C-alpha cells in the first residue's frame, strides 16, 4: 500500500502560516475553562463566607469570655494584645485548605474522568505547558480569593473585638505577615491538589491523599520528639501556623519550634514540588 | 527523529511504520504499517478489539508505541506545540465536560491554539448546533455530542481529520450528513481517516480501506479491489429434484454443494443462465435461481474471521 504518491490533489485546505505558540493563549483558555464552570463561583462564595464567619465567631467567643471575667482581672490584662488565632482561626483555615486542594485537584481530575484530557492533548500536544497554565491560573484565582478571605477575617474579627475595645489595627506588629501567609494558603493548597490530581487522576483517591497530606499529617507527626519535629514543621498547616503566630520560642521550653525562614521555605517547596512533579509525569505518561 | 517533512512526502499523509504496542504480554498492535493519503476517505476497519483505537491514539501521540513510528505530514504529531491546525480528531464524543456549554468548550479550545473566536460560530453552524450553543453539553444526546466532536475537529481547519467510530449513536439523517461531510472534506483535498467495525458504514463512504485484525494488517487497498477479492461467488438454486440437478450440473463441470437450508444448492463454476438452460433441458423444476455476489460485509467477515477477538459460541 506504500505506493508512490502522485502529486497531491487540489490542496484547497488552507495551510495558513501558523502563529507562534504563545503561553498566554493557554492561560486565556484555562481561564475560560475555569470561569465557565458554574460550580466554581458557588464553591468559592461559600468558602469565603465560612472562613470569614469562623473568624467573626472566634472573636465573638473571646468577647463573651471577657464579659464573664470579673472587672478586676480584666483591668489587669490591659492593654489588649493582638490575638493571631482569633483573627485567623485554625479550624476555618484548615477547612479552607481542604476546599482549595479539592478544587485544585478537580480542575485536572474532572478532565481525566471525562476523557476531556484526550481532546485537550490533541489540541495542545505540549502537555507540560498545559499543566503549567492550569497552575498559573489556579494560583492567581486562589490568591485573589485568599486575599479577600484573609482581609475579611482580620477586619471582621477586629470589628467584633472592638466592641470591647480589644481590636488592633492592620499596622500592629505581626499582623501583616499573618495576612500575607493566610492570603497565600489556599493558592498553595490548590497547587498541591492540582499536582496530586495529575499524579493520581482519580477523584476519590486524590481528595483522600490531599486530606491526608494537608490536615492529617500534621496531627499524626509528633511536634515534640526531636526527630519528628522537623517533619511536623515541614507540613503546610504547621508552617502556616508558625507564620501567623507572633511569638518566638520561650527560653525554658523543651518543645522545639520551627524557624520563620524554614516555615517560608516549606510554604514555597510544597506547591513547587507538586507542580514540578506533575509536569514531569504528564509528559512521560500515556493519556 | 527527523522533524522536517521528508522529501517525497506530498500533502498531509498519515504514515504508520512497523507500529507495535504491547500491554504486558498482550500485543494490541503488531508491526502495523500503512499509509493514508490526502484527497481520499480511508476507512479503518477491524472487529472490536482489533487495535484500531490504540493505533489512532498512537498516531495522535496520546500513547507511546512499544516500537515503530507514526507521522502526520512527515513529522510525529507530538512534535507540534499546538495541534488543531494540523490534525482534527474525534476519538470519543463523551470526552467533554458536561457542565460547560458547547460555546465555552469550543472557545477555550480555539483560544488555546490562537484561533480567532469567530471559528467557534463557524464550526457550530457547520455541524448544525448553532441553536444549542448556549446549552450545557451534559444535556446533549449522543448524536449531538458527535456533532460537537466534529465541530472540535474542524475548529483549526486542519488538512488531516481522524474520526473513531464517528456515526455511533447517530440517527439516519445524521449518518447521511456525516457521510456527505467526509466526502466533502476529502474533495477539498484533506486526508480523512475513519475507523469502524461495520463494513456497511464504509460501503458508500470510503475510497480506500485499511483492514486490521488482532493488531495485524489484513488488507490496505482501494475499496473496489477489496470487494473484488471476495471469494464465495456462486448461484443459489432451489429445486424439489435436488439429486437429479446435482448430477446434471456436475456432469456439466460445475461443483455443487447443498446449502445450509434444505432444498437449496450452491453452484459454482456455471453462470445462472446455463444452469437454467440445463434444468429446462432435463425437465427439472427450479423454484429459485439467484446469482450471489458477496457483499462487502461478507468479504470483510471472511477476511477477519480468523482474527476476531471475541467470538460468540465457539470455543477457542
TrEMBL record, chain A:
Q: Which GO terms describe its cellular component?
A: plasma membrane
Task: Kindly list the GO molecular function terms attached to this UniProt entry.
Answer: ABC-type transporter activity
Alphabetic keyword roster: Membrane, Transmembrane, Transmembrane helix
Q: Does the keyword Lipid biosynthesis apply?
A: no
Q: Where are the transmembrane segments?
A: 42-63, 92-110, 131-159, 179-200, 207-227, 264-282
Ranges annotated as biased composition (Low complexity)? 1-15
Task: Identify the stretch(es) annotated as Disordered.
Answer: 1-21
Superkingdom of this protein's organism: Bacteria
Ribosomal protein: present as a keyword of the record? no
Q: What is this protein called?
A: ABC transporter permease
Species this chain originates from? Streptomyces finlayi
From TrEMBL, chain B:
**Gene Ontology molecular function, alphabetical:** ATP binding; ATP hydrolysis activity
Q: PANTHER family given for it?
A: ABC TRANSPORTER, ATP-BINDING PROTEIN (PTHR43335:SF4)
Q: Which SMART domains match?
A: AAA
UniProt protein name: ABC transporter ATP-binding protein
Q: Which residues form the ABC transporter domain?
A: 14-239
Give the organism the record lists. Streptomyces finlayi
State the family named in the UniProt similarity comment for this chain. Answer: Belongs to the ABC transporter superfamily.
The UniProt entry, under InterPro entries, shows: AAA+_ATPase (IPR003593), ABC_transporter-like_ATP-bd (IPR003439), ABC_transporter-like_CS (IPR017871), P-loop_NTPase (IPR027417)
Q: Which domain of life is it from?
A: Bacteria
Q: Where is the signal peptide?
A: none
UniProt keywords, alphabetically: ATP-binding, Nucleotide-binding, Transport
Report the Pfam families cross-referenced here: ABC_tran
